[in-house]
Amino acid sequence: MPGTRKLGRTTDHRRAMLRAMVTYLLEKGQIETTVTRAKEVRAVAEKMITIAKKNDLHSRRQVLSYVTKEDVAKKLFDEISPKYAERNGGYTRIIKIGPRRGDAAEMAIIQLV
Predict the structure, then answer these.
(1) Cβ distance 89 to 100 under 8 Å?
(2) pLDDT tens-digit profile of 75-113?
């Protein structure tokens, strides 16, 4: 199926959830979530890092329009993107950690490499 996964949510809810998860990932360095959500978060987070690598006014405004916290956007430009300056993509890693106890959903840890 082409395009994004719907994750059982309305468009607004899904967009808000992904914004929050990407912000949290960039802030903390890793998050624990389901495998399908991790794959969606990876796509957006890698785009944000790629945009931040340009480091001009337009890219700052693009990142600030998506990331929900200003200090996380600042961290993205000051610390995270310079770390990946020589790297073309592949900024995140997904590690599967087995089923969740409550509903047996496949869980994973997504982290910045």
Answers:
(1) no
(2) 999 999 999 999 999 999 999 999 999 999 999 999 998
Q: Is 6 helix (H, G, I), strand (E, B) or coil?
A: coil
- pLDDT greater than 50 at residue 22: yes
Number of domains in the chain: 1
Query: At 58, which CATH number?
Result: 3.90.1030.10
Q: How many CB atoms lie within 10 A of CB 61?
A: 11
Neighbours of 13 (CB within 10 A): 11
pTM, full prediction: 0.91
Domain containing 107 equals 11-112
Residue 38 has pLDDT above 80, yes or no: yes
Q: How many CB atoms lie within 10 A of CB 70?
A: 9
**DSSP category for residue 29:** S
- What is the C-alpha separation between 113 and 102, in angstroms, rounded? 29
